[in-house]
Each structure stands twice: as C-alpha cells, then as structure tokens.
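fyi for ur records
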Amino acid sequence: MLDILLLAVVQGLTEFLPVSSSGHLVLLQHLLGSREGDLFLDVILHVGTLGSVVLVYRREVGRLLRCDRPALTYVLALAVGTLPAVAVGLLFKDAIESAFASPAFAAVGLLVTGGFLLSTRAARAGEDLPEPWSPRAVPLKKALLIGCAQALAICPGISRSGATITTSLWMGLGRAEAARFSFLLSVPAIGGALVLHLLSGDLDTRTGPLGLALGALVAMAVGLLAIRWTALAVVRQHFWKFAFYVIAVGLATLVVLWLAPESAVTPTGPAG
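which gave:
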C-alpha cells in the first residue's frame, strides 16, 4: 500500500508542478518494481488528477457549460490548443516511444524545461480580468502556439504546465489567466490520455479496489495543492524558481549516466 501512496503523491505533484511528471512517475515505478507496468493504476491516478482540475476550476467549468457565445469561443480555443498534441502523438508515436527509452533524452528535456521557466522572468504578461471570472476567448493563433508548447511536452522531461504557462505569458495573457488556461487545457489532454489507455484494453492490475480508490483520492488531494501552489507562484512571479530543481535533476542525471552508464534507468510512459 505504501508504494501506491508514493505513486499517487508523485502523480499529484508532478502532473501540475512544472517539473515533468513522466520521468518522476516512471522512475519511481522502476525503483518500486512491484507496480511497474500497472497500466490500470496509471489510469486511476490520472482520474484523480483530472478530478483535481475540475474541483479547483469548478466555477470556470460551470461557466463554460452554459454554452453561450463567450463560453463556446473559449472552448473553441481549448480545442484548437489540443490539436497539436493529438497530431504529434499520432504522427510520431514510434519516435516518442524511442525517446522514452533514453534517460539522457529525459535529462535534456528537464534542462529545456528549466530554460522555459527561467525565460518567464523576461516575459511581459498582460492584465488579468477582474473577478468574478468570465470567459474571454484566447485568440486562436495564441491558443495554437500554446498548444504547440503542450505538444512539445509529450517529450520526456519537458513539463506540460511549464511549457504552456510559459508560452501563455509570452503570448501576453495575464498571469492568473495563463495558469487558468493551462490547467483547463489539461482537461482534454488528460482526458484524451485516459481514453487511449482505456481503448488499449490492457486494464489488468495487481492493485485491489481499496488501493485504487485510495490512490485516486491521494492523487486528487495532492493535485489540489499542486495546482494552487503553481497558480500562486505564477501570479506572484515566482514561477521561474522551479527551474533550479529541474536543472539540478537534469544535470545530476547526465553526470550519473556519464560516470556510471550501467545504472541508467530506461523510462517508458506518457509525458507530462
């Protein structure tokens, strides 16, 4: 049960903190051994983190469900932002899987994430709308560019939230709106990944119902904290400080691989 809790905590934290969930979760599964390759557990943990997005942004989700013109134009921007990741995932599936076989590739990805985060110090964010929030559509060209950043994050080591929030800030979105759009954009991204997992049909699990339920709840609870922490860091202009962590991990991984290549871990799994 302890290994499930560890996986849930790591999933909840790294799905929304700008540190790349893929490398963390796969590495932990490899170290634990007993849960490596438990696809259905991965699905359930992602359900938990998806729930945390819906809970944190429940007012925004409720507003979008009104399906009036402002809501529909905002949803259209989210749809446009999702398209690049779908295209990259379908067209470059084999190349992406090969990238996950290289821990050095993931380490370089972490360094790229660090570069993204550091760049936000120079980004000139726009003004945020006054509360209560009402949907103001992100221009489709900007949504597409933010979506391209999300597609890049399919590569191991590149953080989805780090890439999308950074690009949103450079596109002139307000800081609160940059975090909001990024996390709402994760709903179709995570939802689509869940659908693909389910359609794969490989839902065998060594985890009992209690473990699955506990894992989902812990992932959701930790995800709630991670989302709020990240959004607060963006608004208070501390987002770039996460760069120190990912750069340190990336450099440490490259040093370990150079000194002891036989200790390399071969990750396989989805990016985040």
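Residues 265-271 have pLDDT under 50 and may be disordered. thats all i got for now
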